[in-house]
Amino acid sequence: MSQANEVKQLKEDKFFKEILSWSMSIVFMSYWATCRTERKFISVLLAFWMWKRLLLLAKMELPGVALWIFVCLCASVVCYPNGKVREACASMVPCHGSSPQLSPEHTITVNGTEFKPGDNIEVHLSGPDFEGFFIQARDAERLDNPAVGSFVLADRRHSQLLTCGRTKNSAVSHTSKAKKKDVKVYWIAPENAPKHVQFLATVVKKYRIFWVKIPGPIVSQPDVLSPTPPLHATSEAMSTSHPVSYISKPFSASGCGIMKFCIRNPTNCNPGSASCFFLSFQQEESSVFIEMSGPSEGYLAFAFSQDQWMGGDDAYLCVNEDHRIHVSTAHLKERSHPLLDSENALEDVSWRLADGLLQCSFRRRIHLPAYKGRFNLDTSYYIFLADGEASEGGLIYKHRRQPLVTNGLYNVTGLPQDIGGSRAPRLIKAHGALMFVAWITTVSIGVIVARFFKPVWSHSFLLGKELWFQVHRMLMLTTVMLTSVSFVLPFVYRGGWSQQAGFHPYLGCAVMALTIFQPLMAGFRPSRHAPRRQLFNWFHWSTGTTARILAVVTMFLGMDLPALDLPDPWDTYAMIGFVAWHVGTDVLLEIHSYCLVRKVEVIEDDRVQILQSLTSAEAEGRLFKQIVLTIYVCGNLVFLVAFLIAINQV
Q1: Bridge partners, 114 (sequence order)
Q2: How far apart are the first and last CA of the chain?
Q3: Staple partner for 553: which of 32, 333, 428, 561, CB 3.0–4.6 Å?
Q4: Which residues make beta-bridge pairs with 313?
Q5: Which residues are in the DOMON domain (predicted)?
Q6: Distance between CA 344 and CA 403 in Å, rounded?
Q7: For the segment 207-252, what is each residue's pLDDT rounded down to a tens digit?
């Protein structure tokens, strides 16, 4: 009887172990995907369910694992009402799952306009009641750069110091959700301070009502010229130097590819539709007439570039300022905000703002030798097309998604063409596609086969080995190969490490390391009855499970990065659907196997007979398992094809 109980106990342990692994996966997924209220609610429910499972797992002698899971659960239901928002150091955007407000209600004031290294400047943030805030000082000419200088607190009850990047005490935030009307801090100028420093603040009125990077005063070192405004400009700089007229109707795509060069996204869309981005160039003797439209109430912009990276580009912006469109030329310097030109080389400017569409048109000469930074239009360039939000005063915000970029170099004064573009580089698309194939298809099917099809295919052999083992090994080696190739592609595209991708590259490196370690460990697998085989089984299971959990989390984070940015919220729901599909199939097969074991007739003191009965019972469910596997594979392919189509359409 003890031997029979041992066999049953082994099956129960496997059952609970599988439940444990995928419960962990869902909890991590719900935390890392986004820090939204609904995610916290899901995490609480999962924490309750997991706690019940941990009680059942107490007899499995896994106190360390249980403690680790409990810590993870506690972490997954906490956001940041205490102001510890270091994750927002670079973007200054709260992880609240909604868009920022456009018209600030709060102001930043300082007690001086000049500073020398070591000076103290009083910074005062005030306005209607607010719960949270985040203050930094940055280089006024490079606002995307890290914070500069350090702060000293005036009131430790409502404010606290944070370290952003390598600069200690370089930011200030709230200590609680208690309402406040003003905050005062002191900024200490560093020795290597830039010539001009601007104070920025993010203010949270309520969880979903907040303002990001509210611009404050600019302070400068003595005897330094005023900075070129990097984020916004005065109306004088924005205004055109020629009369402006109003466009009476939407643009037309007639003549695209015949008389004018057109870029449309989606391909062949109608410029009058609410989802069409349109840019056209028509040569008229020594000038080019340009039309641009798209679904934006903030701004539209396009740029000519000599490569597929922002920086050193000739840009043109149409910005909605108080329901009037101002057209300006600008120069893009690296990945910073556009530097607007004080003089404008554009003629015959017209605009229209109606039905959610922003339209503007203007004429520009092919050659403009008198204007520095303006490219000649009879040369081939990559063309960027971007959109974003703007405040009522013309303050423009960084575009939230990747700009549309042509797939090659084009001469807009050459042969007329009608082309599209892509918001995701081809190497990044290939990276995402290969990872989806590996971690949605090959690894998932390989795990199911190894876990449930040993008794089903125990008497089937392929190349001298059991069929289930050969299928499992082939799928896992395919996963290793696909992951390895995919892992290299982003580094080839970026030319190194990406500082803009958050946790995604770090988790990707962890997944890659585990993916390589798993087959290396399998190469030293002990024989079936060796004393260390049980230890190997646990290491093999834990490494594979950790890799799959991290892969799901990494894919969740990668889908919303600007370089790929699959449609939201479709991508989140589709990935949750895949995880639920896999977990449901896994649990179904576990329950089926568990029920078969319960039916085994125990023959006391005859271990061989017991094992034979167990094998026979497992074999009885062969047809059921094969049907489930077929349905599961088809479902996986449906999810895979859906993701690949989404990647292709970006």
Answers
A1: 220
A2: 61
A3: 32
A4: 332
A5: 273-388
A6: 24
A7: 778 899 999 999 999 877 655 544 443 333 333 344 567 888 889 9
pTM of the shown model: 0.58
Tokens at 452, concatenated: 């449930």
Judgement on whether residues 216 and 335 belong to the same structural domain of the protein: no
Same domain, residue pair 482 and 630: yes
Q: Do 191 and 214 lie in a common domain?
A: yes
Q: How far is CA 213 from CA 106, 397, 458, in A?
A: 11, 9, 63
b/e sequence 285-311, b meaning 16+ C-beta within 10 Å:
eebbbbbbbbebebbbbbbbbeeebbe
Please check whether residues 411 and 268 belong to one and the same domain.
yes
User: Could you tell me if 165 and 149 are in contact, meaning their C-beta atoms sit under 8 angstroms apart?
Assistant: no
DSSP 8-state assignment for residue 389:
-
Alpha-carbon gap, residue 115 to 121, rounded angstroms: 8
Rg of the chain taking only CA atoms, in angstroms: 30
How far, CA to CA in Å, does 529 sit from each of 11, 451, 489, 537?
A: 18, 19, 42, 12
Residue 48 has a pLDDT of: 41
Structural domain that includes position 158: 86-220
Same domain, 20 and 105: no
DSSP per position, 262-306: EEEESTT--TTSTT-EEEEEEEETTEEEEEEEES-SSEEEEEEES
Q: Do residue 383 and residue 445 come from a single domain?
A: no
Is 238 domain-assigned?
no
Q: Which residue has the tokens 């170099």?
A: 409
Domain count along the chain: 4
326: left (phi over 0), alpha (psi -120 to 50) or beta: beta
- Asked whether 263 and 383 are in contact (CB, 8 A), the reply is yes
Residues 490 and 505: their CA atoms lie apart, in Å, by 9
Give the pair of three-digit tokens for residue 24. Answer: 């962990």
